Amino acid sequence: MKTFDTLLLPLDGSPEAAKGVGCALWLAEALGATLHVLHAARQPLAAAEALARLHLPGGHARVILHQMPGQADAATLEAVSAHGVDLVIMSARGASASAGRNLEQRLGSIAQVVIERSPAPVLLLPLQYREVLPWTSMLAAASGETAADEALKAAVGLAAALRIPLTIMHADDAAQADNRRPLRTYADAAYHEYPHRMEALVKRGLSGRSADESGCIEQVLLRHGDPADILLAQVECQGCSVLALGWHGALGAGRALVLKRLLEEAGCALLLVRGVERQAVKLNVGE
Amino acid sequence: MTAHEMLAAAMNGRKETAVEEGGSAARTGALEAAIFDMDGVVTRTAGLHAEAWKQTLDDILRRHAPDGASWQAFDVRADYLAYVDGKPRRDGLRSFLRARGIQLGDAEEEAAAERKDQAFITLLRAQGASTYPGTLALIGALRRRGIKTAVVTSSRHGRQVLGEAGAAGLFDACMDGMDLQAMALAGKPDPAMFLKAAQRLGVPPARAMVVEDAAAGVQAGRRGDFGLVVGVDRGGNADALRRAGADLVVKDLDELDTDRVEAAYRSRQREVAWRIEQEGFDAAREPDMESLFAVGNGYLGVRGVYDIPPPGAQCDLFVAGIYDAKRGDLPYSELEFLAPERDGDPFAELVPLPFPFRLQASVGGDPLDLSGPSGRGLKRVLDLRRAVLHADALFETAGGRQTSLRTRRCASLADPHLLLQEAIAVPLNHWASVEFDAALFDSARFAADHPQLRLLEHMATPELELLCFATRASRFDIAIASRVVRIPGGIRRLLSIFTSRDAADPKQACLAHSRALSGADFEQRLDEHAAQWDRFWEAADIQVPGHPAVEQALRFGSYHLRLPAGDDPRVSIGARGLSGRAYEGHVFWDTEIFMLPFFLHADPARARTLLMYRHGTLPGARERAAATGFRGACFAWESTLTGRDVTPDKVILKSTGKEIPIFTGRQQIHVTADVAYAVWRYWEATGDDGFLLGPGAQIMFETARFWASRVERDGRQYHIRGVVGPDEYHHDVNDNAYTNWMARHNLDRAAFLARQSGVHAGEADEWADIAQAMHVPQPGKDGVIEQFEGFFALDDYSLPVAERFKAPVNRLFDWEQVNRSKLLKQADVLMLPLLFPDAFSDEVVVANYRYYEPLTDHGSSLSPAVHAAIAARVGMRDDAERYWKQSLWLDLSNAMDNSMLGVHLAAMGGTWQALVSGFLGVRMTAQGIKSDPRAASRLPRDWESVTLRMAYRGHTHAISVSREAAKDTGS
């Protein structure tokens, strides 16, 4: 089973990017993982100098510093595959955001490329992120889509490894005309269908996770209303440390309304998992 | 344009054509176009290409050979066919090099492709292109018949080659590699090029054939849904072409003439209507597919989970009657909905049993897993005629080793305790062996997935595995034996299943059954099974010439109705049969009102079995009546083994603490009269006096006694108060038209039967009196019947169009508001003209349809078919066709978005009923069974005719309605 042994923290020397340092060090400690710190810079600096410049306290045995020439986004993606990274930790805004080249001020251009293209989940610290360590609980949004299943799988793995409770929430938004979501159905019988659907929703995300790991799931909830509202409210009321979310992976092209709201308003870390491309199924029936 | 847009464009093209040609040619469904691959079919350039590839690739192989090591040259036959033939240059190049473990950069790849091109042109100029005379002869013959022709090739030099060969004038359309690039079409096996060619010819793919010599091209033809795909085997490729889906494989096209082509095309059309085919794999859609592809034989049902179950699959085997207490607890958490545990009723829920077809397979230690890194594709085919599920999956493991795994399975209809499974692996490009593990039992999985089961015994030898377990609360013992036989390339498995409900010692029965099986009988057992299905289809098949898609969907419905219908009168058919977990295997009015008519006329013996189940639950129904202070028997709204009602009275939402009351269990008492109605209909349809005078009479009398005590007298009239009618959005209603009408029928028929049999004379008078004085809401001045007392005074509810066919989940949460509104979940008053067609004039039927139809959100899958039947009867053809199609394809289109939890059997039965009693207006009279004289004019617009057989009073009657015949007789 995929664990979280190898973490990556890309830094650019800006104070915004350095927001991720505390969380990354804590996670590496708590997970017993190796933390690769990546500094993409034209001129490599002496190690001590680099650490200072990156706002990184020294003396951590499991921290490996890489200084790579080239574009920060490309370097980050390269490092993800080169080191077999299981989780990327980064602030939503680094120097690129400060420079004003960002998507409506919420997300730096580097962070955008990384969340759109990284094969590994990304722990993104949004604009309003308030650091509270250690983490106490996690929330995962289930939607029945493949990306959400993947996010749930990652969330269960991480919550189990950290021994923190996980809440799974399905938001059913009656106002939206998207009819592929699992609970959008005939109100046939609450007791005949919905429990099975909720169960299936959770089970798909648990595939490949052991029963022990699944033990971290504390509750499964159903709420009605705008998904972003509901998720933010739950984070607030439960004081969640991290919110896991699956998404389609094209922020500019796609709508990703929920993610955009969360980037703007969430005060906790976001565990983002991109959907893998789905093979279409075709049933040769009908006229 | 993307391939997807192309497809959409091609589909649009198809529509236009259909409109243009709405005449007789399109209706008879003849072949209209033929699309030919060029190289190897029309022209003989494969040798030139292979030689050009060899020059290019050998050079690359030489350069990439490890220092001094030897390298294996490109084989112009084997390698060319396996990797390069029929594909665009770059794809062919990549797939060959990948197999040899070589990866080139983009620029290198481009340069290599360019070198191959140059080599080809040099060879073409030097040697010229020749053609196949057989192909040219066939093209000529087709064109003389008015069949359009096109040529399609991945080759960039297509036009040049055709020109060199002098064949360019033979085609109405020509597309080559340059077009492919210019339009950014994906290469074969993507069907984009063929679809584009069909679009250019103005012919829908279903009316065109594809002729190909490469497996990738055959696959493209298949994926594009072409009407016929012909493979031309120029040597040693026949198997690959067949495997890729060719309908016909010939050595040369001189074997074919236009008659043979058209015969093959028509036969293919007929075959398609007997198969349900799925292509591709998507973990998120798997749960739906598992329901659609279920197999069963009345005794048991197994979901269509792939033989190597992907994680998250709902691997359920259900045995009819194996219920246990409801288990809300799951290993990882408590879920959102707290349904009470039904007072620990030991028969509250149909139990999911361990999946009997589970296999594991690996190649060189790498597991084959569709959802894992090795999964490359899946095709499932449900052969409806023989009731055999086939799957063909492709895997690719380390080193690019490709393995095809072909499996088939069935639940024997000849022997209900027998399941058959076969799995054959074919290594496509390697010699590594494929390892199978057919172990049924895994202790961790058993513990995690089956909280209701307790393991009794597990024993495994190389040939035989035995698994015995028991349900915890209901204490049924179940034994499954698996006998595995090795065959070349794979295994066959013969499974035996017995329970303590059908054998005193299920383990011994199971072992004895298993011992009598041998691998050598496998095909014979399969044939015996198929022979039973043949008999079923003889009675149940419906033909709609020229409409294979409709026939296919009707057969799919009949197939699924047959799966849970067994010979055991102690069980009946649950709402989702044995295909999924929804409704927990509970039996509703669905069975008697929606499914039974199908069995009455297709399989009357099973109709009797279904009614015997109700007879068997009379003791429970009596207890239920007594417990609520009434006499006689009141059947359970949700029934399992004992007739005790297993409907919960509320559900609690944990997140909000909100309580949702469930009124149906206590108030939806019409089910009692529905059962009596079904008894009467059975007798009318079969003339089975033995049943009516015996078990039937007991049901009629006991239910009449219930109504006699349940009615309330008010002055001269009798009322039924505090009920829920078929429309479950309203509870605690008085004088529901449907309930009162059905109760009156129940009382009236019981009185008649008692008097005829000379029994219960006093009671018979009482029943007749109550029936006479029952308040049954009548049509008002406008013809509309009030659904229940006070319905007309409810709040108006403006039902947004979007909600008309897709009731949102909040219906459930706003139940109080909904109860006060004129909003219907499903047909209620409209049920009456369906069940009593002669009791209402067409004017009254129209008035009620016009009034209630716009107020209905079809929150139940039972609703569309009823609306179709009523609209068809009164000639509202648009509505009738729309509702009928919705119902016909309800599961196949996943219209309810919940087919993952099992197929909707009542909708399937309702679809059948809407066709037979709605469109065809079939009526039973003393003289026999006949369709309505106006039936031909009511047929769906583009139908020419429909034919079916119906059993009626011991005889089989052919019903045939045809527009032509109607014209001939002047009716």
From TrEMBL, chain A:
InterPro entries: Rossmann-like_a/b/a_fold, Universal_stress_UspA, UspA
Pfam families per UniProt: Usp
Boundaries of every UspA domain copy: 48-125, 138-274
Family: Belongs to the universal stress protein A family.
PANTHER family reported in the protein's UniProt record: STRESS RESPONSE PROTEIN NHAX, UNIVERSAL STRESS PROTEIN UP12
Protein name in the entry: Universal stress protein
TrEMBL record, chain B:
GO biological process assignments: carbohydrate metabolic process
Lineage: Bacteria, Pseudomonadati, Pseudomonadota, Betaproteobacteria, Burkholderiales
Species this protein is from: Noviherbaspirillum galbum
Family: Belongs to the HAD-like hydrolase superfamily. CbbY/CbbZ/Gph/YieH family.
Residue ranges occupied by any Glycoside hydrolase family 65 central catalytic domain in the UniProt entry: 555-913
SUPFAM superfamilies in the cross-refs: Galactose mutarotase-like (SSF74650), HAD-like (SSF56784), Six-hairpin glycosidases (SSF48208)
Residues annotated as domain Glycoside hydrolase family 65 N-terminal: 278-484
Gene3D superfamilies: 1.50.10.10, Glycoside hydrolase, family 65, N-terminal domain, HAD superfamily/HAD-like, Maltose phosphorylase, domain 3, Putative phosphatase, domain 2
A Pfam cross-reference name: Glyco_hydro_65N
Protein name listed in UniProt: Beta-phosphoglucomutase family hydrolase
One term of GO molecular function: hydrolase activity, hydrolyzing O-glycosyl compounds
UniProtKB keywords: Hydrolase
